[in-house]
Every structure is written in structure tokens, then in C-alpha cells.
Design a protein that fits this description.
single chain, 269 residues, alpha/beta, Rossmann fold, five-stranded parallel sheet, globular, metal ion binding, hydrolase activity, acting on carbon-nitrogen (but not peptide) bonds, in linear amides, Creatininase family protein
């Protein structure tokens, strides 16, 4: 993908292009992620690359339904608590993340946009909390339709029920895109396959094929997500089966994600 995470985003447009999107009452997709370690086989920017890829697929689905859509410059200074003990995982304070997101969406509102949807590809618990609080603050103070696209099946862990005006509730997938028996929690088969599909030069395939699967029990998964012991649980910084990446149907996965999120976005307009 030439232009990387700026491809087909506002960053590569002129101000007059942005004005045209405002005039058409376009939906804004805001890619969200972090810069963090993703094992010895993937680059630090994996999450934001994938968030951007997802946004391009969501945009296409919405366009097919007749909606104008524009992708905002990706935001990649999120919170890295779960992988914070690794070199390469950049840390941002919660208040910094919330302030930056508020200012970004305040700018979009000032431009004239009325609908902003956050598309996140990073599962850190504190990161999600910061995003939820940021979108809530924007909704309450800026009076625009700003919503964080969030998985319906984990909302209860965050005290959410899905009908909050700052949340876009995504239904669970009903398809299986991988034959691996090891779930991709971090840097596993699905992330590796997606990066290899779109950014092969950033994917160390030889290394990925050499990595044994890493799986943790539910109790240790929570320890992983809360951070602090990640190196003890997975010294190489991944959780899943990177070597199984060739058995992933990348396009089916992205089409499924795009369909579920785009349908939810339409319901929230």
C-alpha cells in the first residue's frame, strides 16, 4: 500500500477536498491504535496499519450503501499497558490520549463534520477505557454524533450496555476465518496474515513460521491485558500462533468486519 496509513485519508487531501466532504455531510472514520511491540516478526505499527486497512474496507461498504465517507488522519498515540515492559511500546498517559482525541474531534466539529466514528485495532483495557471516556466527553461537550465502535460481547466488562450515545455496538462475528486452534490475542495468525497481505515488506515471514504457538488460560490472559507481566508470560511478545498465518482468509475477515461495523454505523446515524 503506497502512502501507508495516510492513503485515502485527509492527510493526503487539500483543504478544499475536506470542504467538499463537509458539504456532503460525510461520515468521518477515525483509525485508532498504538505504536507497540508485536513480537519478533511484526512491526511496531501493526495496530494502526490494521485500523487504517479496516477503515478503507468500512468506507467501501458505506459507499455501496450511498453514504459519503472520509477517513481522518490515523491516531496512533494510544495506551500500551499490556506490552509496556517491552522496548518499542510507546506509552502515553490517559489524560494525554483523551486530550488529543478531544482536540482532534473538536477540529473535525469545527470543520463542520457531524458524524465521527472511532475504529480501533488495539485491545488494551486502559486504552479502551480512555477511548470510551474521550468519546463520551466529545458527545457531551461538542454535541456531535461521535461514537466509539466497540465489540458488543465485551461491553459488560466496561459497565456499558450498548445504548450509550457515544458507543457504536458491534455484533459478534458469525464466521471463522482461521483454522488455527490458538486465538490471536496479539501478533498471532490473523494479524500476521493481514500485515503480510498488505505490507509484506514489514512482515518477517521466515521468523513467523519459526515461532511456536503461545496460549494462556483465562486468568493469565487478564494478567496479560492489565500489563506488567507480559515478558514473563510470553518472552517474545506475542500471543497466538503466527506460524498459522497462511491458513487465514484475510479478505473474508476484513469484509466481515467492514460489514458488521458499517451496518452498526448506519443504525447510529
Amino acid at each position: 500500500m503506497s502512502d501507508g496509513i495516510f492513503k485515502d485519508t485527509m492527510a493526503n487531501m487539500k483543504w478544499t477536498d475536506i470542504q467538499n466532504y463537509v458539504d456532503k455531510n460525510a461520515i468521518v472514520l477515525l483509525p485508532l491504535g498504538v505504536i507497540e511491540e508485536h513480537g519478533p516478526h511484526l512491526c511496531l505499527g501493526t495496530d494502526i496499519y490494521i485500523a487504517h486497512i479496516q477503515c478503507t474496507f468500512i468506507k467501501q461498504k458505506l459507499k455501496e450503501r450511498g453514504f459519503e465517507v472520509v477517513i481522518a488522519p490515523p491516531f496512533y498515540w494510544g495506551i500500551c499497558q499490556s506490552t509496556g515492559s517491552f522496548i518499542g511500546s510507546f506509552k502515553a498517559r490517559k489524560e494525554t490520549v483523551k486530550a488529543l482525541l478531544f482536540d482532534i474531534m473538536a477540529s473535525l466539529a469545527e470543520f463542520g463534520f457531524k458524524h465521527v466514528y472511532g475504529i480501533n485495532a488495539h485491545g488494551d483495557i486502559n486504552h479502551s477505557v480512555a477511548l470510551i471516556e474521550a468519546f463520551k466527553e466529545v458527545t457531551e461537550k461538542l454535541r456531535i454524533n461521535a461514537r466509539y465502535a466497540f465489540a458488543q460481547d465485551i461491553m459488560h466488562h466496561y459497565g456499558l450496555n450498548g445504548d450509550e450515545p457515544y458507543i457504536c455496538s458491534i455484533k459478534p462475528t458469525t464466521i471463522n476465518v482461521s483454522s488455527s486452534k490458538y486465538p490471536d490475542v496479539h501478533g498471532g495468525d490473523i494479524e500476521t496474515a493481514t500485515m503480510y497481505k498488505f505490507y509484506p515488506h514489514l512482515t518477517d515471514v521466515k521468523k513467523a513460521k519459526s515461532l511456536p504457538p503461545v496460549e494462556l488460560g483465562d486468568d493469565k490472559i487478564m494478567t496479560w491485558l492489565y500489563g506488567g507481566h507480559t515478558k514473563e508470560l510470553s518472552p517474545e511478545g506475542y500471543l497466538g500462533a503466527p506460524a498459522d498465518f497462511e491458513n487465514v482468509n484475510v479478505l473474508s475477515n476484513l469484509q466481515d468486519i467492514a460489514y458488521r461495523i458499517s451496518e452498526t454505523i448506519i443504525d447510529c446515524l
